[in-house]
What does this fold into?
Amino acid sequence: MIVIRRADMSSEEIKHFWENVDKTSNCWIWKAGTSKGCSGRYGNLRYKGVHIKAHRFSYALVHGECPTNLAIDHMCHNTLCVNPEHLQAVTAQQNCENRISNKNSKTKIRGVCWHKGANKWRVKVTVNRADYNGGYFDDIHDAEKAAITLRNKLMTNNLQDKTETK
It folds into this structure.
């Protein structure tokens, strides 16, 4: 992976970057080339002859360098966003912790599913490929509260739950 440093960026590269950003009041949306990733579409650009992610370029613009050993997490969950205030350098595990509910989830609640055998709502949280059982519940709202509590106990970058519980 190429090291992206502010000090190495040419004025032409920076100008090209800004020409492809639509600054809305919240997210700054990348308008040029994209590629599909596991969590959606990501902005791409050429930097020093190599294709890189636009949000990593944006991070380096503000912070001086984009760490090669860390993921750049979209705290806003918008993978086309390049607003540096919405980006944070995190471990791969922390990046996974800041995910929203799987779009195929029937409950739309992270870590809560219907367990047919128990005829109850089941809470299960996965951290570092290990599953943690949060119990079974008659009421989906109780299951959701238990899932949030368990995630907050196990995760360090569980931003969505921490925001909702404030």
Observations:
- DSSP finds five helices and twelve strands in the chain.
- Helices lie at 11-19, 54-63, 92-97, 140-154, 159-164.
- Residues 62 and 159 are 22 Å apart (CA to CA).
